[in-house]
Amino acid sequence: MSNREEPAPFVSRHIGPSPLEQEEMRKALGFSSASALVDAIIPQAVRTRTPLRLPAARSESDALAALQDLAKKNRVARSYLGMGYSASITPAVIRRNILENPDWYTPYTPYQSEISQGRLEALLNFQTLVADLTGLDVANASLLDADTAAAEAMILCSRVSGIPNAHRFLVSSLCHPQTIAVVQTRAEPLGIVVDIRDPLRDGPPEETCFGALLPYPTTEGLILDYAGVIAAMRERRMIVVLHVDPLALCLFRSPGETGADIAVGSLQRFGLPLGYGGPHPGFLAARSSYLRKLPGRIVGISRDREGRQAFRLALQTREQHIRREKATSNICTAQALPAVVAAFYAIHHGPSGLRSIAEGIRARTQRLAGGLTAIGVPLLPGTRFDTVVALLTQSRSDSLLRRAQARAINLRRLPSGLGISLDETTEEGDLIDLLSLFAEESGRPLPTLPPADAESSPIPPNLQRSLPLLPHSVFRRYQSETELLRYIRRLAGRDISLTTSMIPLGSCTMKLNAAAEMLPMLWDEFSQLHPFCPIDQAKGYQELLGDLERWLKEITGMAAVSFQPAAGSQGELAGLLAVRAYHRAHGQGSRDLCLLPVSAHGTNPASAAAAGLSIQSVLCDDEGRLDLVDLRRKLSEAGSRVAALMITYPSTYGFFEETLPEAIRMVREAGGLVYLDGANANAFLGLCRPGELGVDVCHLNLHKTFAIPHGGGGPGAGPIAVSPALAPFLPSHPFLPQLPEGGIGAVSGSPWGNAGVYPITWMFLAMTGASGLTRCAEAALLSANYVARRLAPCFPVVFRGRSGLVAHECIIDLRPWKECGIEAEDVAKRLADFGFHAPTVSWPISGALMIEPTESESKEELDRFCDAMITIHGEMEKVRKGEFPSDDNPVRNAPHTATAATAERWSHPYSRQTAVFPLAWLRERKYWPPVARVDNVFGDRHPICTWPVEDETASESG
After folding, report:
1. d(Cα 719, Cα 172) in Å, to the nearest integer?
2. Which terminus of the chain is more exposed, N or C, with fewer CB under 10 A?
């Protein structure tokens, strides 16, 4: 099917309001042009004087063709590199109905549980899968990758350890090199000493350690029996973490059975493409006693007002925004969409299918080992799952590597020889090709492989899994594709996504994720590259990253970019670590204080704490502007301790502050650096450049500003752009030796973070071009002010700029309604009856709603949302006037389910029509909330975070 040239440029379809509608909206605001509106919103002192120099905008077909040319420069080899990344097969039913389905990739994080029941159930499936595989009690709803999960486990161990003043963490030298590197990066700023040794060979260190990280299997692929070591460590009150391969756990003894306390890993090989390193769902599972300290998100089972089972994000949901620097983690973005894929992969195959896949990999590995032995190749002895290590001299390894690369085969170089890791895509012909390499090198004839149905040697009894595999019926119920497809569709229908209506969350920018942007992500040339393949096999990807770096440097006015941070929170951490490293390199290691305006983004304090910095809040005045008097006082008090000012611009209060240039000058005079949180960059694209203002580091949320979808709570991407002074301190990586030695270390397991989603941003920027990007920002500013103007008579806007306008979002005040018994949360729940996701609730101002419409919503949709809010205001007015009781009205009782609306008895003082069809257009496009108001208190008091097993004796095959 050929792509035909579209009659209108992409940006005209990306921006929701038509030119005529934009003119009407500007007229309602009293402005005759877009430039006049922008001039009134953004202070002249922060405006850029130089237009963006980006390539001209391409049509969809031209951009796709250009990206296809880049993709063809990649060479997809057969990679047997392993190291936590394996090729996998994404079942077609999952690829088509989840990965390629906007019902699954466009929703927001499920903070509003009533309209997120589908994703929450899918994530509970993920948690149950992880808990069962690991033999532990609880698991979170995913982390950024396996290696950052290992670092989070180390921090968790430190927090829960009962050993006083213990600051040492043992990491086995047999872990993957990138795992060790990420753990070291995260440990150093927290004052944790990483002791790298092989505890089986060398024994535990004499010094007291609060915990240990052990690989299972090792980086050389051996499954080791840790029973004795773990018992000895537990006697010393150490907390034991196992870094696991979850597919191996289908056959081998689980961490819970070995006595481990925590397990971490990645479920990438459960149906996720390699994607040149991500996004992949990391996980952390633990004993139940650690539940309330686990990092990241956790889904729990609760109940709704009508008594039915309901799901919610439990316990520390968004707690990094509330507890600030005392939060257990700075994590804000998880890997929800990849986690959903992994869970459905397990449901698709069922326990017997997973075991069959694992047994097939193990059998092929044993057959390969037998063939290599027949040739005379010495092998690393021990129990294996998917990896064989050939013990070779360096010269022989070099020769074999050259021979392999000539045949587009990637083997892993090790100090002891060559590693070969197999996966579910490995076929009979691949085994023959691998053996022929070694046979030719040895001058020996190709050996005959044992037959495919030959019985494998048994797993040693001390390493065999004894727990039943995935006993819950969800993993046995949907074995036919018909039933699985219906289950996927049923869950998707329980959620509000961008396919339903606008999602007006402030500070989250839920803009269009265009189909043309999404298509290339799953092209084989991008999705099937191993992150550690030779760089010359990824020339197209490297060129794509080069394009993105040039474009982002131009947009931000900065000097260099690192793509390694896999989320905005990780970008914050990487940027602050770079600031800290800069000061230390200049002999000013005492600079350990980060100044944070109270208007800064919610994750900033937790990120600063994770970077080893102390926190000092800076006040804002009554109008929400940074208080320069307070800043001056804090700078004076801190003296030479000032490391950085971390500011969000425009601020989370929803407007551009004219105080920014003066604040930057003051901090620089005090010897500090300036971090600009780019979460709100959608407001200044092409209009402001952080680098021109004197900013030193800025992270950008590609999953907000640059069109990568939120995926129901992840993946994210948070690259950082830095000034020339900070360029030497960008993240390094064991597989990026070309970076300067002063780098802060690895912050992600992959050198390029979530590279698999970068083609989306490339397409967005290629199709918008310079003028289109600026038009996006102008439209976002226009839409937010139009909404603010329409709602202001009913809901006062809390903060405005000097001209009385807001930026790309506005905060409306509901605090006065508390005396009528109505909270901001009640309005959020009532919006579900109108088919809308709620704005951001009670953040950054308690008792308020923060609304961000984005540039992609049409005027019709903006008006529908405003009409809904104005209708809700009318209902609230009836409560104020006494026409509705304060405890029995449409707002307090929301959301209204179909069950309630069709019940025989209706005792409320308003009609059923008012409850479920408050506006006429709802009769044609009604979204029915699947549950009533969820009981959060009950959920926290009775945390249930995995599916209970209905029948412990159920057959694994169903």
Report:
1. 30
2. N
Mean predicted confidence (pLDDT) in 234-255: 97
Cα–Cα distances in angstroms (integers) from residue 203 to residues 165, 166, 170, 195, in the given order: 22, 18, 11, 12
H/E segment holding residue 168: strand 168-172
Contacts of 654 (CB under 8 A, 6+ apart): 506, 784, 798, 799, 806, 807, 808, 809, 810, 811, 850
Give the Cα-Cα-Cα angle 133, 192, 127 (nearest 5 degrees): 20
What number of other Cβ atoms are within 10 A of residue 280's Cβ?
A: 31
Cα–Cα distance between 534 and 662 in angstroms, integer? Answer: 47
Q: What is the 3-state secondary structure (H, E, C) of 875-926?
A: HHHHHHCCCCCCCCCCCCCCCCCHHHHCCCCCCCCCCHHHHHCCCHHHHCCC
Could you tell me the two tokens for 558?
A: 């900065």
The answer to whether the predicted template modeling score (pTM) of the entire model surpasses 0.90 is: yes
Residue 335's nearest CA partner among 717, 715, 710 is 715
The closest of 569, 660, 576, 568 to 612, measured between CA atoms, is 576
* Strand positions, DSSP E, 713-857: 720-722, 810-813, 840-841, 848-851
H or E segment and range at residue 229: helix 227-235
Distance CA 850, CA 312 (A): 21
For residues 732 and 408, what is the distance between their CA atoms, to the nearest angstrom?
28
Measured CA to CA, the distance from residue 558 to residue 575 in angstroms comes to 13
- pLDDT confidence bin for 203, thresholds 50/70/90: confident
HSE toward the beta carbon, residue 898, CA cutoff 13 A: 6
Residues 130, 256, 205: CA angle, nearest 5 degrees? 115
Beta strand segments in 217-335, E: 239-244, 262-266, 282-286, 299-303, 309-313
- Which residues touch 294 (CB under 8 Å, ≥6 apart)? 138, 140, 156, 284, 286, 315, 316, 328
Q: Where are the alpha helices (DSSP H) in 493-639?
A: 515-518, 524-527, 539-556, 568-585, 604-610, 628-638
3-class DSSP state of 167: coil
8 Å CB contact between 757 and 715: yes
pLDDT band at 328; cut points 50, 70, 90: low
Q: Is 686 left (phi over 0), alpha (psi -120 to 50) or beta?
A: left
Confidence of residue 327 (pLDDT cuts 50, 70, 90): low
Residue where the block lists tokens 């010393």: 236
CA triplet 790, 796, 798: central angle to 5 degrees?
120
Q: How far apart are the first and last CA of the chain?
A: 42
Q: Are 534 and 79 in contact (CB under 8 A)?
A: no
Q: Backbone phi, then psi, for 390, in 5-degree steps? A: -90, 120
Q: Where are the beta strands (DSSP E) in 392-463?
A: 409-410, 412-414, 417-421
CA dist 279 and 10 (Å) reads: 27
Query: What's the token pair of residue 804?
Result: 């009385």
**pLDDT of 954:** 44
Q: With beta carbons less than 8 A apart as the criterion, state whether 200 and 233 touch.
A: no
Beta bridge partners of 648: 677
Strands 138-139 and 299-303: unpaired
Name, in order, each residue with C-beta under 8 angstroms of 201's C-beta and a sequence gap of 6 or more.
none
| Count, residues in the chain | 958
Tell me what pLDDT residue 951 has.
57
Contact 688, 664 (CB under 8 A): no
Average pLDDT over residues 912-935: 97
How far apart, in whole angstroms, are the C-alpha atoms of residue 935 and residue 495? 18
Number of H helices and E strands in the chain, helices first, is 30, 24
Amino acid at 821: G
